[in-house]
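Need SNARE associated Golgi family protein's 3D structure for a figure. Predict it.
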Amino acid sequence: MLEWIVNTVNSLGYFGIGFLMFLENVFPPIPSELIMPLAGFVVTQGKLDFAHVVGAGIIGSILGALPWYYLGKRLGLKRIQFLADKYGQWLTVSGEDVLQAKQWFDRRGNLATGLGRLVPGIRTYISVPAGINRMSFWTFLIYSTIGTAVWVSLLTYAGYLLGENYEQVKKFLGPISTIVIVALIIMTGSWIIKRKTRQN
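Structure prediction for SNARE associated Golgi family protein:
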C-alpha cells in the first residue's frame, strides 16, 4: 500500500493527495498517517507547496466525510448498525463502532464532530452520528473542517520535520491521540456531573 500511496502522490500531486484523503475517509484502512506525512516530505524536496498540500488534504478529507454524514441522515441508527454488522468487515466497522460513535456524539454534540476528526479510528465514523442526529449541514461542515485542518496540518508538518523518516509519524501519534481521548473523557465526565447537579 505504501508504494501505491507514494506513486499516487508523486504522479498526481495535489489532486493525488486530495484523492487519497477522500479514499481514506470512505475506506478507513487507507491511513492518513502515511498520506499526509509523505506529502510533507515531498514539500521538503521543493516539489509541492506546504499550504496547497494542507488544502488538498482538507478538501479530500471533508469530501470523504460527506457520504457518511448523508448515510447517517438518510438511514438512521438501527439500519446503519444492521448494515455495519452485515457488510462492515470490508470497511473495518461494526454496529458496535457506530453505536459508540453515536453515544460519544450525544455527549458532546458539535464539539465531538471537531475533536473526533483528531482521533484515528473515530475520525471517519463521527460523521455518521452527526447525520443520524440531523446536525445542520453547515454546522457539520464547519466543525469537521476545523478538526480536519488541525489533523492534516499536524501530519503534514510532522512529515516535513521528519523528512525521509516520515513513516515514523505513526509512533508519535499515539501520545497525541491519547491526550485527545483523555480530554474528551474529562469533558464528558464534567458534562455528566453538571447535568446531575442541575437535576438535583
